[in-house]
């Protein structure tokens, strides 16, 4: 077994809630807080915490605006987030490839 | 995006250190504590903690014996561990399949 891909897994992305958020954002130009919450069945608090962690890592951009006089929060992957996520998926593929044979 | 495979990821296995341990044990009938530690480049304390978590979940069996008058600890996947790990890998494959297109 080659331990390298395990050691290289990005802890920020690997956590399953954040992995789901990154995957959802990879599939859309942007998503609102409400869309993410409903898609991923998370609580407000849980989603807020994960988004802050992803934002602090530079993986997502969070934009606060107003629509119809109501606050609107939208999230999108940054270039760094997209690149890091692609690398993460590559590591997962290596892990699956080397474990599937057993 | 289908959130189901993310929600189903087993937290005990998903942590990257334990994922590495499960993968190593899936590739061998059993491994000693020393073999695991050297293969995965973990500290004694870190490996001990992860092994206890996996043992409490019923995913590995830990056997303590003596070889040449020295204590020997060996670890092996249980049937439940092997089955749960196979299910986990299947979920990872679903996640990769649905994110690769973007």
The global form of chain A is elongated
Assembly state:
homodimer
User: What does the largest sheet of chain A look like?
Assistant: 3 strands, antiparallel
Class of chain A, according to the CATH hierarchy?
Mainly Alpha
Short description:
2 copies of one chain form a homodimer. The first copy, chain A, has 102 residues and is of the alpha+beta class. The first copy, chain A, has a 3-stranded antiparallel beta sheet.
Task: Kindly describe this structure.
The structure is a homodimer of 102-residue chains. Chain A is an alpha+beta fold and 102 residues long. The first copy, chain A, has a single domain, classed as Arc Repressor Mutant, subunit A (Orthogonal Bundle). Helix content of chain A is 61%, strand content 18%. The first copy, chain A, is built from 6 helices and 3 strands; from the N terminus they run αααβααββα. A 3-stranded antiparallel β-sheet of chain A has the order 1-3-2. In chain A, strand 2 (60-67) and strand 3 form a beta hairpin. The longest helix of chain A has 21 residues, at 79-99. The termini of chain A are close together. In chain A, 29% of the residues are buried. The model of chain A has no long low-confidence stretch (mean pLDDT 94). The interface between A and B is medium-sized, with 28 and 28 residues.
């Amino acid at each position: 077994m080659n331990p390298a891909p395990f050691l290289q897994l990005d802890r920020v992305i690997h956590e399953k809630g954040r992995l789901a958020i990154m995957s959802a954002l990879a599939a859309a130009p942007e998503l609102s807080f409400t869309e993410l919450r409903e898609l991923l069945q998370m609580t407000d608090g849980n989603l807020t915490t994960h988004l802050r962690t992803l934002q602090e890592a530079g993986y997502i951009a969070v934009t606060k605006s107003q629509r119809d006089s109501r606050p609107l929060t939208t999230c999108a992957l940054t270039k760094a987030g997209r690149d890091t996520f692609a690398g993460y998926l590559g590591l997962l593929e290596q892990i699956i490839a080397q474990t599937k044979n057993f």
